Amino acid sequence: MVLHLSSFDKELLDGAHGEAAAFCMRLLTRFAEAVGAEGLIDIDGAHIDGCLYLGQVSLDFVEHLVRLKGRVRVPTTLNVGSVDLIHPELFHGESEIGTNGARLMMAHEGLGCMPTFTCAPYQTMFRPRFGAQIAWAESNAIVFANSVIGARTNRYGDFIDLCCALTGRAPYYGLHLPENRRARVLVEIESLPGEWADAGPACVAVGHMIGKRCGSLIPAITGLPAHTREDDLKALGAVAASSGAVALFHAVGLTPEAPTVEAAFQGHAPDETIRLTADDLRATVRNLSTVPDDTPLVGVSLGTPHFSLQEFARLMPLMHGSRPVVDVYINTNRGVLEELATHGWKDILEAQRVTLVIDTCTYVTAIMRDMSGAIMTNSGKMAYYAPGNIGVDIAFGSLAECMASARAGRVVRL
Length: 414
Prior knowledge:
single chain; 15 helices; 3 domains; 38% helix; Rossmann fold; 5-stranded parallel β-sheet; Aconitase, domain 3; 4-stranded parallel β-sheet; alpha/beta; globular
């Protein structure tokens, strides 16, 4: 397929808008040809996943663009990095990773990117509008933008996301095209565990199962609780994008492109139907834990993806009572940190042995002080990644169970 370039694309390639933009455009056109795009489109914004230091190449690429005096052409947010620039004392990993990680984060700022350093840019002031064409990286951000907001992005990876940001252009293929956004798999939740009053565990279970069983196919889900919240859908998408390659899901009656099953499938019949029962969901949640109940804990980690202010509002009533006997870590972004101080919650949390982690995340870098035993979380994404990423055993539970367990120092079920 021949890639058609606009006059502006040709200007970018010819260097009329700077050497950095020309460099990025050369990479972007090669990428567009590889994925079979017919042309490029303007984007409203970008989200960059390459702030996490994964070796010298991470730094070389970004600093090369800085030397070429590159600047982003659209509003561009940044994903988590390797260190908490607000609280650098929290990092206790290798000095090279800490130094180069901070240098990489600041190099992105030098390109004009916003120092958001969050995996949940959709819950900041930079939330895109419905229908916006964007170039986002970071798996949970991609699936949330596509599914819950109805913006349009493919699963962009490191370097290509930055090329899109510096050119303001993205290949027109995949989920940018309306016809490619239709559901292929119908997921029917036939029953929910009666003991789950909160929609969170159900959404994590469903997300994990569609990731495993749908791969990259787009599912349309029926039967989620009517009281499902945005943060529940955030958790669903995060674990679906981790256990599989889901970039878009439709929750019928809950997400904007799926008012009905027919709308989600754009009038087509499902290629496959998956039926889930309460027992299926219970088993999935149970299998997210690598340790049995009553196992001693060394810590609790929340906020993967980053905790929203609404999640903190649900946490605060659980902070009354005795002080936890293990460390509690909550990952969140800079904007929420400011809101916590405004509400008077920051001091309460820190008095209750809570460490607020900003700019990074506990399952991607060396933040947690003690990893000699099991860690508990309410995040399906952390439960999926942490055993392999940081080598810890995981206990998965609801938010209330996490806090009860933090006070008991062992896995408690409510």
